[in-house]
Each structure stands twice: as structure tokens, then as C-alpha cells.
Prior knowledge:
Structural class: mainly alpha
Strand content: under 5%
Shape: elongated
Number of helices: 4
Number of strands: 0
Helix content: 40-55%
Amino acid sequence: MIDTTTPIPAYKMALAGSMAGGIAGFLGNPAELIMVRMQADKAKPEARKFCLSRLRPRPHSSSTRVLIPERFNYRNSIQGLARMTREEGISSWARGIAPNTVRAILMNMSQLARYVSHPAVLLYRKRRTDPGMNAKEE
């Protein structure tokens, strides 16, 4: 039987949040990757207006041309995932999976523990200082 009257300790909430964040970060990595690629596309030059004669020289290098990556031009996330798989292979879905998972673990751990514990602390303090909170309604 689960006891619902006692509050869950903060370390258990942090552990539950980190487990949920780890699973979500791992499974949601392809969507995060597509989102970042689509957002960063606007900063890259368009393919039609880009030519090799306008490339900038790289400082301290024997090569005089630097290749700037062109836009991906994904229409939507589904088409982006399909093109990523077709052009780069299914392993491209795992790019950046470690930092993304660690970020999700830390973010969910702190948020879940905080969102559950802080309202309980605030309500406890309010009950101690406000006598009307403990009065039964008639």
C-alpha cells in the first residue's frame, strides 16, 4: 500500500526526475537535432547565392578557401528526419545524444524536485502563520 499522507523526500523526487529526463533526452534527441538544424538554417547562406569565388581565406592555413555549409532547407520535421536518414544514415539521429541526455537529466531533476517541494513548503509556512488556514469550514 502506498502512503499518500507523507511527503516524498526530495532525493526520491530528484531521482525520479533524472530518470524521466534521461529517458526523454535519449528518445527525443532526433527531434531536438532537427529543431536545432531548422533554427540555425537562417544563419547560413542560401545555396543559389553562394559561389566558390566568394569564399574567405582561412587565417594561418595553406588553403585559401573555407567552405561554409549550406542550408538544409527542411520543409518540416518529418521530411527533415527522412532526409537525414537517407543522406546521412540512421546513425545521424544519435549526434549530440550525450550532452542532450545530460542536459535533460539535470533539467528534469531540478525542476521536478523543486516544483513538488516548494509548494508544500509554502503551504506549510502559510498554515503556521495564518490561523484561518487551519479552521474547518462549516
